[in-house]
Design a protein that fits this description.
Strand content: 5-15%
Number of helices: 5
Order of helices and strands: EEHHHEHH
Shape: globular
Largest sheet: 3 strands, antiparallel
Strand order of the largest sheet: 1-2-3
Distance between the termini: 51 Å
Helix content: 25-40%
Radius of gyration: 22 Å
Mean pLDDT: 81
Length: 145
């Protein structure tokens, strides 16, 4: 069952011990705006997926981050989120990974669900069995060198 959160309120996410960000809900409007972000569109078509992922995550974070705690400048003074500061935060690998896992991937779960279906417990695939079997005595084995 799909659960709808009708409150649509920003939420706090912990990205590292002592580092929290308040993020807008991951909505369709936010994703569409991010996909058409100039920084995302500027990534060359033949760029590796990793480069695309970083550009997309930074563009999304620039739109989604409303506030944060535990982020400061080189002197240890708290700073407010800005495009440059958000990009610098996501340049830190564990922060990038946490952002992807706690925010982006949860929003993309529904996208993945529509691309693959599980076997139906009581539909046409229920109780399905393998139809191709190796002929007796003709099974191949891996050769060890």
């Amino acid at each position: 069952m799909l659960t709808l959160d009708l409150s649509n309120e920003p939420r706090w996410h912990e990205l590292a011990p002592g580092v929290r960000v308040q993020l807008r809900p991951l909505t369709t409007a936010l994703m569409v705006a991010t996909r058409s972000d100039p920084a995302v569109e500027a990534v060359p078509e033949d760029a590796p997926d990793e480069e695309r992922a970083v550009a997309f995550a930074k563009a999304l974070a620039r739109r989604a981050v409303l506030a944060w705690e535990g982020v400061g400048d080189t002197d240890g003074n708290p700073i407010d989120p800005s495009a440059q500061a958000i990009d610098a935060l996501l340049d830190i690998w564990p922060i990038f990974e946490a952002f992807q896992l706690t925010y982006v991937s949860k929003g993309l779960l529904l996208e993945q669900e529509k691309n693959a279906s599980a076997l139906s417990p009581n539909g046409p695939s229920a109780g399905a069995s393998a139809t191709a079997m190796a002929a007796k005595g003709h099974a191949r084995t891996a050769r060890r060198d």
